[in-house]
Amino acid sequence: MPEAIIETRGLTKNFRGFTAINNISIRIESGTIHALIGANGAGKTTCFNLLTKFLEPSAGSILYQGRDITRLKPDQVARLGMVRSFQISAVFGHLSALENVKLALQRQRGESYDFWASHHRLDHHRERAMALLVDVGLEPWADTAAAELPYGRKRALELATTLALEPEVMLLDEPLAGMGTEDVGRTAELIRRVAEGRSVLMVEHNLGVVAELCDRITVLARGEVLVEGDYATVSRDPRVIESYIGGARHD
User: Fold this and answer.
1) pLDDT digits (tens, 9 = 90+) for 150-184
2) CA 205 to chain centre
3) pTM of the prediction?
4) What are the structural domains, with CATH classification, of the chain?
């Protein structure tokens, strides 16, 4: 069996008597793109927040590369190599694309954020920052303020800042949310490219992209694992059709 980079055992989260996540055991294999899907209210966001340590579990454990990280804080988990992006783009709008990536590189190397310092202070990160912008197709927009980038390009910039932290695992929260057709295709291909040599866990609603990109899929329903497998397996499961695809059809 391939090595698991992230594993949960009996993961549970209660909110004042309401069980949002109930006894979930998930295994994310190293070097794969793994999707977490389900209808609204299935528990995807809660599960994602537990894995990235923005919530503390009520019961169960989380392992990263075999190490128990259940009680670690988000910054400690990030330093181990698990780096999260958010559904809402989290970049500094008043800074250029290049400056955003240089700041991420500065943080990755444990340096302080000196916003008031001369721009030359960050020049030693320029070569690596430009290489990351090339990787995500943003080289022509290096000097463009992040706030002026189209939405899809802004999400690409967020991926570049995430890559600057040199993650072993990228955790992507609905990376294609709100995108038009052209941006969806471009960003999906970008995710495929940056996933080479690392592992990716993504929460995503776009089933077409999930089918094309993901090696393995976990379907949640009412806070529990409904089924897990490749797309061909989960898409044929009657419970998935009823709970996820059928539910989405009636929304």
Assistant:
1) 888 888 898 888 888 888 999 998 888 877 777 88
2) 13
3) 0.83
4) 1-80+201-251 (3.40.50.300), 82-166 (3.40.50.300)
